[in-house]
Amino acid sequence: MSDVFIIGAGCSVPYGFPTGATLMQKLKNFNYGDSNVDSPSFRPPSYLFDLYYELFGKYQEYANLRKAGGQYSFEADGIEVKVSNKISETIAPFAKSIRHSMMVSTDEFLKNRLGQEKSEEADFGKRLIAREILMAEKESENSYVRGGEGKKKEQWLGNIDWIQHLLSRIDQQDNWKEILKQTVFLTFNYDRVLEYCIFLYLTSDKQYSDADAHAFIKDMKIFHVNGFIGPLDKIPFGCVENGKYQEIAKRMETVWEKRQNRDESEKEKYQEFLKKAQRVYFMGFSYIPDNLESIGINRGAVIIRNAEVYATAMGLSSQNRLRVSSYLDLKDFEKRNEPEPMPEIEVQRSPFMTDVMYRQKYEEKERVAKVQAQMSRKHYENRILKDASAVDLILDYYTLA
Fold first, then answer.
1. Which CATH number fits domain 2-14+161-336+382-397: 1.20.120, 3.40.50, 3.30.479, 2.10.260?
2. Which of 93, 214, 248, 349 is the most buried (most CB within 10 A)?
3. What is the distance, to the nearest Å, from the Cα of residue 400 to the centroid of all Cα atoms in its chain?
4. What is the C-alpha separation between 149 and 142, in angstroms, rounded?
5. Where are the domains of the chain?
């Protein structure tokens, strides 16, 4: 038996990361450097040299070639041609499309670019998303974790959020190692803020070496359902200029790609965790049916029927909570205290049944009915927490007894 945390974008927002809708807006407003590509004075944006390191190399190397002149200017010209072609063929069409897009999230936008004809745009989109996430990691590390001079320093100073509360609770237990390694985290986020906070906990509070902390985290049950940036020991937290965007993009799958390329063995693994779960927590999650189905939770949520289920609903309307409650077969927040009716008790009396025998039979059926009512009550105590954030859930409902 273990706890299973199902984590959505809302859990990373307190650490400075965008939601799907916010990220989409950032990409709409992004400076793609797509204007006047054919002008002699045009200079490509520097971010391209990191995103396509395998094609162009770093910006500084390009700049040095340009300054060197002589034989190196020919190599620089070659790089410039490649960059211009990439902008014209991939980036400019992507920029125009996303600025005019009616889609709410980046996943939905990329869905229409997963075919062979638009695959280069989908690849570019994933690289750009990865860059935005790594930049958010970098700012989070400077502003939130280290209390540095980041743009959001005043916002983050003194902030304590759900991962800190969770680790603080776990740290009170003698078997903290077993708890961390038994707990299952199914995250739909590409970022590694959970792993990074655990890394800080291990190295700062438990005095682990960096190598031992990385090894510990690898042994944990943290699964990025739609892919992620990569392990911290390979791509450090917030390392924007890593030159590995090609391999990062391959590790990132939208929910639509998951549906097309669904690995049933992966889904079955998640289902086994859910079947054995003692408690299931939905935190910062949007409850998109496709996402739920991708981990094996179908309508009615029979697979988690025997677990205690708690779910945050910060910012969700009452109607949305009702829809989620219906899908997960949970009693909504406002209805959780309604009494469960006792099943009707019927005893058929035979001609030879005495009053004592009748009473014994009735009491036996009554005991069964009470157990059924208690089981129903326990099931419906599972609930969606109105306006609750992940912190509220951890503080109010996560116990280690």
1. 3.40.50
2. 248
3. 24
4. 7
5. 2-14+161-336+382-397, 22-133, 338-381
